Batch of 2 targets.
Target 1
Amino acid sequence: MNGLCLVAIGNVPVKALDWIENAIAEWFPLPIRRLPAFPIPEGAFDAKRGQYQSVELMKMLAQLAPRDASRVLGVTDVDLSIPMLSFLFGQAQFDGPIALVSLCRLHQEFYGLPPQESLLRERAVKEVLHELGHTFGLVHCSESSCAMSLATHIELVDSKAEQYCVRCGMQLVQRFTSKEATV
Amino acid sequence: MKKNWPILVVDDEDVMCESMGAWLREDGYHVDTASNGQKALELAKSMDYAICFVDLKMPGGMDGIETMMEIHRIRPDASIIIITAYATVDTAIQAMKEGAQEYIVKPCNPQEISMLVSRILKLKKLQSENAILRKKLNRQYRHYDIITKNPRMAEILALTQDVSDLRSTVLIRGESGTGKELVARAVHFSGSRAEKPFIVVSCAALTETLLESELFGYEKGAFTGAAAQTKGKFELAHGGTIFLDEIGDISPKLQADLLRVLQERRFYRLGGTQEVAVDVRIIAATNKDLAEEVKAGRFREDLYYRLNVIEIRLPALRERREDIPLLAEHFVQHISSALGRDVSGISAAALKVLIGYDWPGNVRELENVIERAIVTCRNGMLDEPDFSWLERNPGSPQNWEVPDVPLGELERRAIVAALERKHGNVKEASAALGIDRSTLYDKLKRYEIVH
């Protein structure tokens, strides 16, 4: 294993990357490498929707990230979508190396409210834990307070805790400690 | 487990398949994707998809509606969700008409799709639960009706399942009370005719003319009292099964009529001029040895062979004594609750008595015996004394011990018993003893039996 690469896509406040790095360090026994920011890929913008195609950003992460990285987490501030869905908080390759989180809809400003930094931090951490959890084989959890529960709107993100439930947490620990499994 | 509900995404755009697949996999589903209708069908052949998301517009080859219809042909239980980029009422109506369960316009809200999927799966879970319960109920029904651990009976039950979907005539042979009608019901209710009528006709209970009108119906004015056209049992059983009990007892005329129905599946109502065609499966039952009846000239040979396509011979209860405790327990529970009596079971000693008895009336007799015991039982458990009257039954050789007395005394007692049974009728008593009347009189004199 060669650690986890954390990379901004487009402009992302350094502060936010710091919060995220701390949270990852708390939950995942992986060395973390910060890479210089990637540009937003050309052609990812969907003018009709005024959003960015998540799939294009995922593809870029897979292409540009170092080959030896066991996980790559991209963080962006632009709004993501896929053809089927009107928006995404984030996306991950299930049991694969790539994860992506968008901060766009985590800002209070997105909902016409005054900015609230602590809330943004909490939401970012929850979404990062969620998407990274998928890359380690965790599926959506029925425990609504677990970071792995499915959030389809911001209120559901807020009702989660900044942690995994016991079951999901134990599944992660097993994954990291079992001899057969590769991190 | 979400893994048990595989999902198929069919869309010509790779990005759509990929992203939708990834999103659903995160939710724990097994997801396959296909870029066109043809590939979707190939996948559907090998996997029983619970849900298929199908894009309405796919250029070249099959479009969404066609794909949906073909998938339905292979997997009628799959729920199809039609995806379209354009919300038009016409296409929505068409999709739903052709059998789509849902219709969504992309892009849709993540919450919308997540609720849609869970709503469909909730329904599917209920459906499969329902199917499982139905199966259980059917099994229970069957076991409730035919209780056995006897291997021969188990074979018969298996045979009833094997022949249930055929239209072939079944002939059930067995002593009275062995459950011939239950077996006939098992054949009918486990087959494709289960939803259709099961009509029972007891051939021995009716006179020839009554039976004839009962079976074939009659036209208005066919005989005195025929006030209106009336359908017979064969017509009432159309699509289903007619069970002709005690077929060995029908008259030669009816044998001929029945033969015609068996051969042609059509007949005339009494007094009628128009043929009536029916699709009826015939199950006949008899406690007689029909082959013997044929030899004796009392039963038509051709009818016998028509009836005897599939033969089921039910063993007498004494040939499956291991079932007696099971049946007894069952009847105790069933009858005590039906009669509102608080009888909880049957003692081992009482069971021993029942197992030792020969049951000439078979299961029906056992049922009646248990009912009588429950009615007279004074405590909550059937015990040996509750069946003491049964032990005196002379029909049970295992309970009949030869008393230690001279042979002459045995003969004297046999004669007295025969006279008692026949209420003093010497003619009948001598016949029962197998001697002629004058010999019986001689013996009465010799043993000084006051008659």
Target 2
Amino acid sequence: MKRLVSGNEAIFQGAIRAGASYFAGYPISPTSEILQQAALYSEENKEFRFLQAEDEIAAAIATISASLAGAKAFTATSGPGFSLMQEALGWGHVVEAPCVFVNSMRVGPSTGMPTQPAQSDLLQIKAGSAGDCYPIAFYPNSVEECFRLTAKAFNAAEDSLSPVILLADAFLSHLYEMVDLERIAIEVIPRSKEPLGRGQRLFTGTAHDKLGNVKTNDPEIYRGWFWELKDRHDRVAEKYPLFEYLPCKNSETLLIAFGITSRIISSLKDRFSIFRPIRIYPVLEKELREMTQSYRHIIVVEGSDGQYASWVECAICRKVMKVPCLGGGFKLKWIQSQIEECLKGAGR
Amino acid sequence: MDSESDRGVFEGSGKVMDRSYKELLKMRRFPHTWCPGCGIGAVLKNVAMAIKELGWNYQNTVAVSGIGCSGRMSGYMNLDAIHTPHGRALTSAEAIKTVRPDLNVIVLSGDGDLASIGGNHLLHTSRRNPNITVFCNDNEIYGLTGGQAGPTTPKGTKTITSPHGETYLPLRLGCILTQQAPYFYARTTVYHLNHFKTCIREALLWKGFSFVDIISDCIELNGRRLGFKTAHQMFKWFDERFHIVEGERDHLQEDELGIVKATAEEVIQPVEKVEVKPEIPMESLKPFTLEELQHFDGTGGKPIYIAYKGKVYDISASPLFQGEKRMRCHIAGKDLTKDIDMAPHGEDLVFKFSWVGRIE
């Protein structure tokens, strides 16, 4: 039955459908509703475990540990909390714990504007944690997609044996849409990693060989581990080349936008072509190169000062124009005027 | 080293020493990383022996560690072991126990890891009381990084980050962990072997969060700076500093070794309803005119009333109005709305008195 569902609820239900049985979190706008739903759900379903942790550090560590123990686990937070989770995120990559981190972005840095949406955590999801580990990240733009992509994120986590990040924004988290969650079919990849209590393994964040022996001064062992991780990530990312492309005939301009920004500018689809990456990281390099070839102007409309735009520039080796929607202001009129200005400046 | 071939070593009693605990240790990884004379080896060995005695094995037991010298302990246990980021061992252990209640979860870590960087988790994990056992190798120093002062370093100890002696008092783990029942806290040392073994065993058998604070030595990075030449001299120092206390205790002095434990005394009823006092409707209050109000100035045994924002309050109980008609610029029996708004204190001073009426 169709009913009004919020983005946060869709994320939670998507996780349940994907088989999640553990949630740890700490209250933070705008994902507190996920924590609340997890608390309610765990009351009714004893096999679902829930922890309201003392901070995001504990929430993230508990999520990864629960994953090692055998549960499909997830946590949800926003930018400042995600900063605290970075330590655990790096650890999750080394101990190969499949789990999902939901980061619903709000205006930062620091406390910023807690109720206002932003898209400024992209660099943080890629490179917030120390060392070389770059998680896979998806970013939906509707309530239904929140549901689908959460389940996909769990599948990608199982495939890549790593934490996978589901991005959202304060707008999307609190967006209500008519959806029939029950009728959405979802493919679920079951748990493949052996749970605890089956062997004599060591799950360590320290560099180690395949047997779990700590080896902290051998570059070959580190390199072996890293390239294997990277290969695995690339292979899994290739399975999810998710994007949306709305071509507009006669348009020489391609707008690139994702998440809530892509919803806002969708009414410009009769004037401009629109490309929406759904897999935010690893960047859709091949697709971007193909799509952008035939366009004279490329404008990235995003809720940060060019974080995604810089990735696009790297991928296509070409300068792009930017419309940064900062401070939670995502007004269509303003965006439109900025696009016009960009085009004027570029000599349309 | 094969556990079978080592049999036949006799202890003083003539009994064959049981070395079967070695199957719980990853002997292929030996020799271990710790310095000669370090107390961690004793902790590892005795925990392994206790686990073996209880019949626990890799199929039902998980070891969790943090970072530091003592954080390496779980890596030598022949179990599924987790080596967490710095300070997060307790949270990790709790999550594992939550997901897999069938597993026995032990935490092997150090004082810097558990009490300093993991201090917040120590407070909250112990509060949530998961059924896990924590062995804290408390060597009063950050050993792995070279001997910096830690949270448990006694005041006055010279370390490389406190060259003139540690400035602050150490954290009292015993006080923190026994503040509310249920709790299990044991303090022992690696020197008092029988007591040490008893503490480990009791902690493992305790249902709930149990914490064993094992005073241990770091001869290379703490002891030598203090003037000790050998680990044995440090052990003798422990013997001087601490003494074992027997029997049920509810508190351990800082120089006492022993076990303090308590089960939850009473089942606390959940707070379902708090009593909310209804607001008194304005109309039901007695009406006063400003002239009538003036009579209530405290003279002749009358109560002291004042008006504030249309309401009349009985302030007879105010210590500031006793015996006189006024408290500085506030005159009893008057409408003090303007005075109080201008006063340096807030209006909450008035609200604590009871309403007796309203101004017409």
